[in-house]
Design a protein that fits this description.
This protein is mainly alpha-helical. The protein has 9 helices and no strands. About 40% of the residues are buried.
């Protein structure tokens, strides 16, 4: 249980760093927006994403928030958020990479540097193809696991904590879509 706790903590800390460090820096430097105000404006979207663990279910609320609260141009927000709900799964990619490395440690499998790079690259690519529904990343994790020789039975070790982690990573995925829409839109409009 201690190892499982450290695994969950590692994923959550990674997601928090992505959300509050990486996204904040991008919002401040590229979009010239206050990260605090941006995150506050998106809180309903984040809560919905967290509770449903589905990027697809959150899409209508994210579109409404982008256009009406954040005042992003509709042509940009509609395109970015729609594509992002399936293609921009950076929280999922982080989860998949950490999960595969955790299960390799559990099974005592030492991955070479080349294998770790393969896990990273495959996690990013698998994140692009992951369905925006609860548990949609689990089949992709199995593919990445098997590519480096980790037994598929290892999935049983993480199933008990996957729903919570799915809720967390979905929130980061949806937030990333909104941040990218803001970055593409540039400066906030005065309205």
């Amino acid at each position: 249980f201690q190892s499982l706790f450290f695994y969950v903590a590692t994923v959550v800390i990674g997601l928090l760093l992505q959300q509050f460090v990486v996204y904040s820096v991008l919002l401040k430097t590229v979009a010239r927006r206050s990260p605090v105000q941006f995150f506050k404006a998106c809180r309903d979207v984040y809560l919905y994403a967290f509770s449903t663990a589905s990027s697809n279910a959150t899409l209508p609320l994210a579109l409404e928030t982008a256009e009406h609260t954040l005042r992003l141009p509709p042509n940009i927000s509609r395109f970015v958020l729609t594509v992002g709900s399936t293609a921009n799964q950076n929280g999922t990619a982080l989860f998949e990479g950490v999960t595969v490395l955790f299960l390799a440690q559990v099974y005592g499998i030492e991955l070479t540097t080349a294998q770790q790079i393969r896990v990273m690259a495959m996690s990013i690519v698998a994140g692009i193809g992951t369905a925006g529904v609860p548990g949609g990343s689990l089949p992709m994790v199995m593919i990445v696991m098997q590519s480096v020789g980790i037994p598929a039975e290892g999935m049983g070790l993480i199933l008990g904590v996957d729903r919570f982690l799915d809720m967390c990573r979905t929130t980061v995925n949806v937030s990333g879509d909104l941040v990218i829409a803001a970055l593409v839109s540039g400066r906030p409009s005065k309205a």
